Amino acid sequence: MSKRSAGIALAIVLAAGLAACATPTPYQPNIAGQKTSGGYSEVRIEPDRFRVNFAGNTLTSRETVEGYLLFRAAELTVQQGYDWFAIVQRDTDKSVRTYVDPDPFYSPWYGPSYGYWRPYWRYYGGGYGWRTWNPYWGGPFWGSSVDIHTVEKFEASAEIVMHKGAKPAGDTHAFDARAVVDNLKPHIQYPAPPK
Q1: Could you report the per-residue pLDDT of 12-28, keeping only the tens digit for each?
Q2: ∠ CA 67-73-74 to the nearest 5 degrees?
Q3: Which residue has the higher pLDDT, 122 or 192?
Q4: Nearest to 49 by CA among 23, 27, 80
Q5: 83 and 57: one domain?
Q6: How far is CA 87 from the centre of its chain?
Q7: 57 plus 124 within the same structural domain
Q8: Rounded to an integer, what distance in angstroms lies between the CA atom of residue 135 and that of residue 133?
Q9: Is the pTM of this model over 0.90?
Q10: Residues 45, 94: one domain?
C-alpha cells in the first residue's frame, strides 16, 4: 500500500471515529478543554441580577440552546435563594460558516509517482455522438471535485433579575424558578459520566 493510500485510509478511520463520538452539547458548565464543547456560564451584575449564557456546538439545535438557557436561569435562581426571575433582555446568536473542502478521493495529479498524468474518457453523448472528457477542461465527470457544507452554531443569552415571593400573575417575562426546573428537567441531557 502506498503512503498516499495509507494516509487516506487513516483519515477515513479518524473521521469515522470522530463522527461516532460527536454529540450535541449537554447541559454542563462551559469550560475550555471539555470532551464536548459549549455549555452554560453566568456573570453576576448586581446581587439579584445575572447575565446567563448557553453556547451549543454545531450539533445542538436552537431549541435546545434556548431551553438549556432557561433551565440554567431557573436553576441559578433557586441556588441563589430566590423564588422567581424576570427576563429583562434576551438574545440568540447564530453563527454560520461554509466550508469548501477538496474531495479526498479525487486528486488531479494522482500522486507523485504518476507525474502529471490524469485520466481521459470518451463516452457516448446521445444525439451528440461520441464526446470526450478531459480533466483539464472540465466536463460531466468529476466536474465538481469539492465538498461544500454549511455549519450552524447557536448561543443564547439573557439578563435576569431574581425575586422572592409569589410570581406576579400575567407577567409574560416572569418565571417561577422551581416550576421551570421541574418541567424542563426531564428534557435535560447531562454529560456522560467518565469511563
Answers
A1: 544 544 444 578 999 99
A2: 90
A3: 192
A4: 80
A5: yes
A6: 26
A7: no
A8: 7
A9: no
A10: yes
% of the chain beyond a pLDDT of 70: 63
Q: Which residues contact 175 (CB under 8 A, 6 or more apart)?
A: 70, 73, 74, 84, 85, 86, 87, 167
Of 57, 83, 69, 84, the closest CA to residue 188 belongs to 69
Q: Are 118 and 137 in contact (CB under 8 A)?
A: no
Reported as a single tens digit per residue, the pLDDT across 77-105 is 999 999 999 999 888 777 877 766 665 55
**pLDDT confidence of residue 19:** 44
Question: Would you give the distance in Å from CA 167 to the centre of its chain?
Answer: 35
Exposed, middle or buried: residue 78 (CB in 10 Å: 0-12, 13-18, 19+)? middle
pLDDT at site 12: 55
Residue 139: give the domain boundaries: 107-144
- Does residue 5 sit within a domain? no
Residues 40 and 136 in one domain: no
Name residues whose C-beta falls within 8 Å of residue 182's C-beta, 6 or more positions apart in sequence.
Answer: none
Structural domain total, the chain: 2
